[in-house]
Amino acid sequence: MGQVERNMKLKLFTIILAAMVIFAAALFIGPKFINPFNVNGIEKEILISIRLPRVIVSVLMGMALGASGAVLQGILRNPLADPYILGISSGAALTAVVGIIGGSAFLGIVTIPLLAFIGALITGIFVGAMGWKKGGFWPERLLLAGVGLGFLFSAMLMLIMSISSDEGLRRATLWIFGDLSIADWSVIPYGLVFIAVGFIISISRAKALNALILGDELSHSLGFSPRRERFILFISVGLMTAASVALGGMIGFIGLLIPHVGRFLIGSDSRVLIPVSALGGGMLLCIADLIGKSVLSPMELPAGIVTAIIGAPYFLYLLRRKDVLSI
Amino acid sequence: MSSVSEHETGKNSLSSKNTILEFRQAGFSYEKSSPFINDMSLSVGNGEFIGLLGANGSGKSTILKLASGILKASKGSIDLWGSPVRTYKNKDRAKLLSYLPQILDMNVPFTVRELVSMGIYPYEVLPRLTVDEAVEMVGLADKTESLISNLSGGERRRVYIAMTLLQGAGLLLLDEPLANLDIKYQIELLRLLKELREHRGITVVMALHDINIALQFEKIILVREGRILSSGNPGAVLTKELLKKAFDVELEIKRHDSGEAYINYENSF
Question: What is the pTM of this model?
Answer without folding.
Answer: 0.89
